[in-house]
Prior knowledge:
Helix 3 (91-102) packs across helix 4 and helix 4 packs across helix 5. Helix content is 36%, strand content 27%. It is α/β, with parallel strands linked by helices. The strands form 3 sheets. It has a 6-stranded mixed beta sheet with strand order 6-7-8-3-9-10, with helices on both faces. It is built from 11 helices and 14 strands. The chain has helices at residues 40-47, 69-73, 91-102, 106-119, 135-147, 165-178, 191-197, 215-219, 235-240, 270-283, 298-312, and strands spanning 2-11, 14-24, 29-34, 55-60, 63-64, 76-79, 153-157, 183-187, 200-205, 208-214, 223-228, 245-250, 259-264, 288-293. It is elongated and about 80 Å long.
Amino acid sequence: xxxxxxxxxxxxxxxxxxxxxxxxxxxxxxxxxxxxxxxxxxxxxxxxxxxxxxxxxxxxxxxxxxxxxxxxxxxxxxxxxxxxxxxxxxxxxxxxxxxxxxxxxxxxxxxxxxxxxxxxxxxxxxxxxxxxxxxxxxxxxxxxxxxxxxxxxxxxxxxxxxxxxxxxxxxxxxxxxxxxxxxxxxxxxxxxxxxxxxxxxxxxxxxxxxxxxxxxxxxxxxxxxxxxxxxxxxxxxxxxxxxxxxxxxxxxxxxxxxxxxxxxxxxxxxxxxxxxxxxxxxxxxxxxxxxxxxxxxxxxxxxxxxxxxxxxx
Length: 313
């Protein structure tokens, strides 16, 4: 669906995006993460055709953005963080205006408006002026203009910014529904939002792509937490001798309590390692209280990925 090759963009002598490449398949939901100034908005503007890259190429659904920008833009919907709207316009009139700008044919426009309004639950407010709407409803108007014409690609910048918890939950549910028929790129500072709706994450730091992984793979850890009795003082020595175990360290959360973190070798099967660890503990005559994988959270993964790059910049 999307192919980005060696993409760069500079503002004067300042590089905002530095040699970024990635691929996104059809119907993927991808979280674009990074600190302020990392290059997220610049990449989204280039993907939407709003900015031209200084170097590199963007291909969307087989069309090169440099030579077929209008064709590409008719297949995508874009919600910038600060959507320019006309507050005095009724919702329906604004969406019709947006549909006209998108090039949706007059014969198809009425159906496109009905679908977008229904998808965002704006039916009861379609005739209200935009200035009368709450922040959450205005965000829905922004999403509605983005999904006009059922685009194959949606680029959404901070779609839940400023929403209360109930509105945020509604927006996340809407994003899940939209992902059933479109590829979605979601930029946000809220890690829970990424974990709730995304399949994959791209992490930027100082304009460079420092992480590109499926979310499930990121959560997986090759570290096992073991809690065992201290009946055998040499248990840690026995654990270190297991062929699947790369390292054994005391659990920093429970030092000196018979709790360890065991790192499993990259090529070792995690289930086989766990089985052998359990047998080792029991064979040594110690009580086995706990043996489970350490689940990594996205906040810590993000910090690990960006700390070095930020320091280097």
